[in-house]
Amino acid sequence: MSYIETIDLVKVFKLGNVEVQALRGLSMQVEEGEMIAVIGPSGSGKTTLLNIIGGLTRATAGQTFIAGKEITNFSNAQLGMLRQRVVGHIFQTLNLIPTLTAYENVELPMLAIKMPASQRKKRVTELLTTVGLEFRMNHKPDELSGGEKQRVAIASALANDPPILICDEPTGDLDQETGAKIVQFLHRVNKEMGKTVIMVTHDPAIARQTDRIYRIMDGKIISVQKPSDSEEANAALKVQMYRDRLAETELEIADLENAYKEQRINAATFGERWHNLTETKQFLERELHRMGL
Ligand SMILES: Nc1ncnc2c1ncn2[C@@H]1O[C@H](COP(=O)(O)OP(=O)(O)OP(=O)(O)O)[C@@H](O)[C@H]1O
Ligand SMILES: [Mg+2]
pLDDT tens across 233-246, in order? Predict the structure, then answer.
């Protein structure tokens, strides 16, 4: 049994009469201390997989083992403990509480396990300092940049010192430089703090910095690759990911433009995200062009 293992996971979502099969027999193994990347097109089941590993969602069928224990039939209370103490989760949507400061967001999981006040204060300060936000402790999420918000989310996921960290596209909305810093930090969490890390990413360069890359398609693992595998395999993987990402970025830009037209987001948010997405799109087009495609 591996440290983290899923066997034939199936997840069916029912929306009225419609059934969506998000996972269709997904098996994966992660060893203690590894850093793993999970890649795959939008809608392939990456977030669903992380939610099952993180004890947020129950699979429809299949088995899940976390830190050597089978959690498949855990009670709600046991799953609660798993979320509080074993698996730190950085959500795709970050899930920071907008009315709380950075300090309070990081403190929240500690309150849930009734950590004594003096210990909390020390730990929140330490964590926010580690992620370089010692001068932003009293800022609320809206008063922080994208990269800073991501760092608060990481600090909050590490609050109760879980042995496992799962991160859903930690660089998703960030420009390349800020994204690279976040990934660097996650490597430190893996190497220096000794945590087992599973990271969903769209970026082939980031995926290749990990120990192994699991590729998901239609709710199943279709390949497992080591970054040290052959040049051709790596090149093919890169092209596929760039193409997937380009198609998705174009959709995201269209969605964003609609949201702005319909006044669901303000000009500043629109401007920042449009700039980042366009930068990503141009980068991908340039790279594909450079590879002669
Ligand atoms: N709560 C839900 N109810 C119904 N369908 C869902 C739910 N969550 C996910 N799905 C569906 O399950 C499939 C997998 O979704 P999931 O969010 O896991 O994909 P993903 O790989 O994380 O995609 P992305 O890269 O866009 O984040 C999709 O078809 C999605 O629409
Ligand atoms: Mg997702």
Answer: 778 878 888 888 89
Q: Where are the alpha helices (DSSP H) in the chain?
A: 46-53, 76-81, 102-112, 117-130, 146-157, 176-191, 204-207, 231-261, 267-290
Residue with CA at minimum distance from ligand 1 atom 16 = 45
For the cut 90, the answer to whether the pLDDT of residue 66 exceeds it is: yes
CATH number of the domain within which 119 lies = 3.40.50.300
Label residue 55 by pLDDT band (50, 70, 90): very high
Single pTM value for the model: 0.83
Concatenating the DSSP letter of every residue in 173-212 gives TS-HHHHHHHHHHHHHHHHTS--EEEEE-S-HHHHTTSSE
Q: How many CA atoms lie within 13 A of 53 on its CB side?
A: 35
Which of the four pLDDT bands, split at 50, 70 and 90, describes residue 86?
A: very high
Mean residue pLDDT of the chain comes to: 93
Do 37 and 175 fall within a single domain?
A: yes
Which one of 46, 89, 202 would you pick to mutate in the ligand 1 pocket, going by the greatest count of ligand atoms within 8 A of its CB? 46
Boundary-marking domain end, from 206, 229, 252? 229
Asked if 188 and 279 sit in the same domain, the reply is no
Torsions phi, psi of 81, nearest 5?
Answer: -60, -40
Nearest alpha carbon, ligand 1 atom 7: 13
Q: Which domain holds residue 27?
A: 4-229
In this structure, the answer to whether residues 175 and 290 fall within a common structural domain is no
DSSP structure class, residue 86: I
Cβ–ligand 1 distance for 82 under 6 Å, the answer no
Task: Name the closest ligand to CA 249.
Answer: 1
**Residues 223 and 243 occupy one common structural domain:** no
Provide the token pair at 152.
């608060």
Tokens linked to 200: 């969903």
One domain, residues 244 and 221: no
